[in-house]
Design brief:
Elements lengths: L1 E10 L8 E10 L11 E4 L12 E11 L6 E9 L21 E12 L2 E2 L20 H4 L3 H15 L3 E6 L5 E9 L1 H18 L6 E3 L15 E6 L1 H5 L3 H13 L1 H6 L5 H4 L14 E3 L6 E3 L1 H5 L5
Parallel strand pairs: 1-5, 12-13
Antiparallel strand pairs: 1-2, 3-4, 4-5, 6-7, 6-9, 6-10, 6-11, 8-9
Helix pairs in contact: 2-3
């Protein structure tokens, strides 16, 4: 028997953006545990804005398990938060997902490294040289001496965990980077993105650096914000497609624009201004290779008769 370190990970009840939480228990197993072998576990919801002190117990229900490359005999256990009666907690958004195995998502997570209250590489006062050389940049003057070390180590941790990590690059602003996660199935794609975020945030503890996901951390300046572009396809789009179907799909997106914006996170009015490679928050547009559109369509998709 081996004593495994099980890191139970969940999203708390903070609004408008939840935080990742985690705590460890040790259990004996003959081999790396399967999801079915992992027990439910409790936590103090009054400390995570998920319960009142007079009735503080919340339940962690394992939904995915991954090997932990940072620990000997470690396992990363992604959990949903449940109420004591077994029903989903109101903060449990994963339980509301319509899980479609034919829906494929490629997420591109942009973020800033932050240290001492400013993006990594920014001077103590003022700003570095304007944007231009940082995107996919190489060299100390563009990416510094620690960021690449972190993103490479994060890449290896994701791969060790079996997460379908697809790439990394320095982004447009100084101190800004991106990683990409691809998943087949709505819940699987979301699970792997949250686990990749957890691994990144835990990793940067030892470097004295924080991760900033805010969509416009530098405010109304001539510096890019951060988003998480979502490449997507459905079984119908991949197998049948066609221009008429695609245009009907775009019309449906346009009609639901406000519903989408409502769940895309806070402060997007600061980022979606029509500048810095975005459409305006009040508009819905799509275009081929158009970085100023709400939805950017690749040339290859159009050339393949709107299929892919």
């Amino acid at each position: 028997m081996t004593k495994y370190k099980l890191e139970y990970i969940w999203l708390d009840g903070y609004k408008p953006v939840p935080n990742l939480r985690g705590k460890t228990q040790l259990k004996d197993y003959d081999s790396f545990p399967t999801l079915e072998q992992l027990p439910l576990w409790g936590f103090d919801g009054s400390s995570t804005q998920q319960a009142e002190g007079h009735s503080s117990d919340c339940v962690l229900k394992p939904v995915a398990v991954y090997p932990d490359g940072a620990r000997t005999d470690g396992a990363l256990v992604l959990c949903e938060v449940m109420l004591p009666d077994g029903s989903p907690h109101p903060s449990n958004m994963r339980a509301t997902i319509l899980d479609d195995s034919g829906a494929w998502f490629g997420f591109e997570q942009e973020y800033f490294f932050y240290k001492d209250g400013r993006p990594l590489g920014f001077p103590a006062t003022g700003y570095p040289a304007p944007q231009g050389p940082y995107y996919t940049g190489v060299g100390y003057k563009n990416v510094g001496d620690v960021a690449r070390k972190i993103v490479e180590e994060h890449l290896d941790l994701c791969l060790f965990a079996g997460i379908n990590h697809e790439g990394i690059n320095a982004e447009v602003a100084k101190g800004q980077w991106e990683f990409q996660i691809f998943g087949k199935g709505s819940k699987k794609a979301a699970d792997e993105m949250w686990m990749a975020r957890y691994l990144l945030e835990r990793l940067t503890e030892k470097y004295g650096v924080d991760i900033q996901y805010h969509c416009k951390p530098l405010g109304d300046t001539d510096w890019n914000g951060s988003g998480m572009h979502a490449n997507f396809s459905t079984t119908y789009l991949r197998e049948i497609g066609g221009k008429a179907y695609f245009e009907a799909l775009m019309a449906a997106f346009k009609a639901a624009k406000d519903d989408h914006i409502a769940v895309y996170g806070p402060d997007n009015h600061m980022r979606l201004t029509g500048k810095h490679e975005t459409a305006a928050i009040t508009d819905f547009t799509y275009g081929v290779a158009d970085r100023g559109a709400s939805i950017r369509v690749p040339h290859s998709f159009v050339k393949n008769d709107y299929k892919g």
